[in-house]
Amino acid sequence: MTGSSNQALNDSSEARDGEIILDVSWLTERAGKAVMTDGVSRIEMAWIKLLLGWFSDRIAFARLNRWGRYGRLSQSAVLTMIEQTEKVWQESEPNQLTQNFRQKFYQAKALIELWPHLFMPQRGIKILLQASPHHLDNEAALKNILNKEQASFICLLYDTEMLEYPEYVPTPEWQNLKKRLDIIARYADCVITDSEATRNRFLPFMAEAGRPIPVVTIPLGADALPHLKKADPRPKSEQISDHPYFLAIESDHAGHNTEMLVTVWKRLILQLGTKAPDLLILGQRHPENSKLGKMLARNPDLQRHIRFRESCNDQQLSHMMQEARALLKPAFFARRGMVIAEALRHGLPVLASDIAVYREISSNMADYIDPLNGSAWEEAISEYMNPFSTRRQTQVMRLKGWHPMLWQDHMRKVLAVIAAQS
Fold it and tell me: How many degrees, rounded to 5, is the angle at CA 154 between CA 86 and CA 344?
């Protein structure tokens, strides 16, 4: 345990003898799957690694599996899981057959090793922590878990902005979010939010529940992605484009204004022809049957300049962030905006929608544009094509003096919240 983390709990003498139970349902459900990391998985992974490193004698792990069984997991099983998960995130497997076999092997192994086992609740102070939204829209499941654990419940809350944009969200998804916030307000003993905007959006639910629980804002961490060694050759399969290109990451949700980007690219192609930049849309399948897919199918020029990639590992993403001109986030509302802070931490400039959460996440380091103003996006992208343009270099210079919160700093603040609740 570091001095800073120890100090976070020393404010409460009782807390030093308490048990911390971390719910890892989200990550264990994805164990062994060769998919691009999502924001929730990154958060849960960071919490696991830090709590294991600092409090291995006090940390316990639990999960609710897909069959509704809740129980504890051994530390060794969780350690094996995070090692295998990080291999999937960070290593590239050129042989698809070998990769598929390894994935099936890990999943079968995880089914056995990560099966939740029965436990006898210990007496004393206990804190149940949850960093994911997993099962928080299931009141019966959460109530059963809290009855078994007899612990104070602290959860992390983010991605609530869609509540104000029901026109962009499928009705069941919007209703589930509202239900989840209502359940959290009625059962949590403390809530940690990723931004003041998220906090303000949750407060009415707390008021309606009539429970004045602490709601504390702690920004998420933004550690650097792994870099490939300079001596490592760049495989041809990993080459993205000979043209300047831009990244749009985790755009597979209704609030991401991808159609506007496609319209911008059509205009850029008309102006620049073959010299137009490329757009790599990462974390989304090619939209074969959607309106967007039909737009692309009818325009060969767009097909040449706009590419979709469903997943990649961290090293590939690191390469892309080194080479791209900017990250584009033209969303109507924020969803897993942690990628903005990660890109900025990586030194990649960001063009983002001018919404409160994005400004908070990026500490006003990015360039912000109205998500409906296609002309402004076109102008910004045109300027950012040149890596040495005044506008792009202004942001690059801002980033040199920026120091985002790291995960260990985030966790120290979480520990202070735990101490206050113990």
Answer: 45
